[in-house]
Amino acid sequence: xxxxxxxxxxxxxxxxxxxxxxxxxxxxxxxxxxxxxxxxxxxxxxxxxxxxxxxxxxxxxxxxxxxxxxx
Length: 71
Known about the structure:
Elements lengths: L5 H14 L4 H15 L5 H11 L4 H8 L5
Helix pairs in contact: 2-3
């Protein structure tokens, strides 16, 4: 496995943004989830639960998100 870089995260954000181009509120909600995690308002489990609910039916995004989770 290669080490993840900031560019990987930015590419993933672009994927999310493009996938929900017609639903910008979903992209914004994902950004809010990540901001809450960074601010330690929610833990990793909270992030996983919220993101998997938000991306339900979008397996490609869920798989992509899993790349960033700790083992």
